[in-house]
UniProtKB/TrEMBL annotation:
Its EC number is 2.7.1.26, 2.7.7.2. Residues 176-301 form the Riboflavin kinase domain. Catalyzes the phosphorylation of riboflavin to FMN followed by the adenylation of FMN to FAD. Belongs to the ribF family. NCBIfam families: cyt_tran_rel, PRK05627.1-3, PRK05627.1-5, ribF. GO terms for molecular function: ATP binding; FMN adenylyltransferase activity; riboflavin kinase activity. It comes from Winogradskyella jejuensis. InterPro entries: Cyt_trans-like, FAD_synthase, Riboflavin_kinase, Riboflavin_kinase_bac, Riboflavin_kinase_bac/euk, Riboflavin_kinase_dom_sf, Rossmann-like_a/b/a_fold. This is Riboflavin biosynthesis protein. It catalyses: FMN + ATP + H(+) = FAD + diphosphate; riboflavin + ATP = FMN + ADP + H(+).
Length: 304
């Protein structure tokens, strides 16, 4: 969304909001409630690419959400106006005063900012909450500071969630997120090997290479296809039993036969069943897949 949104008077919070986890949601709830009380538009200023992608290009940084997913989640949790600022080295070099004056005040017409006590901003992140309070007096906006106590009540970080997903612990990640971790991708053609063993799969291609894909293995998943809730099991890995190939994401939906080629799907990850293994024969793999399906249905019976 363009930053040219000055005609709206906003209550704003600022951050990368990767994951939009329960800690973020607590902040968004405060923004929403204060906005309703003061007749201000609940808004978020967020950044893309992630600052670390620009400032630490030697790191292989994976994010919990694509920018489209982040926007979807922010809207889901009550944000009415999402302002995405393209993060560049030039932007990072803005002085704290220029950032506040040019962007927060003149471009965004901010009336109130809800921000954590430990917020830093401006070139080299040299300015802090005390500086922002001084700027608020100069430029006539209010500050709602989120205290250390409030933040510690939801001691969740995007890093903790990334670590959980890299370990395959989607249950822990989902607890931190407050929703099921999900992948958004397009169904593309595969080798159709799954059909030959009675387990046809939808091959999911995710365009955004910065999206974090959890640890290889087999997972219980759900999706909405043509407005219908469907469940299945998903394999992340290289399919070593049949043919070692580049890492892929394949979903076998239960009791579902529609043609999904070319469609975008959202896959919610519910539970991890096991690691990916190389079996001695295709028949051994098929036997295991039957066990996986049974285990998936047992899980769903008690966890829907």
């Amino acid at each position: 969304m363009s930053l040219n949104t000055g005609r709206f008077t906003k209550i704003l919070t600022i951050g990368t909001f990767d994951g939009v986890h329960i800690g973020h949601q607590a902040i968004l709830k405060k923004v929403k409630n204060l906005g309703k009380k003061k007749n201000l538009i609940p808004s978020v200023l967020t950044f893309f690419p992630h600052p670390r992608m620009v400032l630490k290009q030697n790191e292989d940084i994976k994010l919990l959400n694509t920018i489209s997913e982040r926007k979807f989640l922010l809207e889901k949790f009550g944000v009415k106006l999402i302002c995405v600022k393209t993060f560049t080295k030039e932007f990072a070099d803005l002085s704290a005063r220029d950032y506040v004056k040019n962007i927060l005040v003149e471009e965004l017409n901010t009336k109130q900012i809800v921000i954590g006590y430990d917020h830093h901003f401006g070139k080299n992140r040299s300015a802090n909450i005390n500086d922002l309070i001084k700027f608020s007096e100069e430029f006539d906006f209010e500050i709602e500071e989120i205290s250390a106590e409030d933040i510690e009540q939801v001691t969740v970080s995007s890093t903790k969630i990334r670590n959980a997903l890299n370990d395959g612990d989607v249950s822990l990640a989902n607890t931190y997120l407050g929703y099921n971790y999900f992948l958004t991708g397009k169904v593309v053609s595969g080798h159709s090997i799954g059909r030959t063993i009675d387990f046809p799969t939808a091959n999911i291609y995710i365009e955004e290479d910065y999206k974090l894909i959890p640890k290889d293995g087999v997972y219980v998943v759900k999706s909405f296809v043509n407005s219908k809730e469907v469940y299945g099991m998903m394999n992340i890995g290289s399919n070593p039993t049949i043919k070692n190939k580049p890492r892929s994401i394949e979903v076998h939906f239960f009791d579902f036969e529609d043609n999904l080629y070319g469609k975008e799907v959202v896959i919610e990850m519910l539970h991890r069943l096991r690691d990916e293994h190389k079996f001695k024969t295709v028949d051994a793999l098929k036997t295991q897949l039957k066990k996986d399906k049974k285990a998936s249905l047992t899980y769903l019976k008690t966890n829907r």
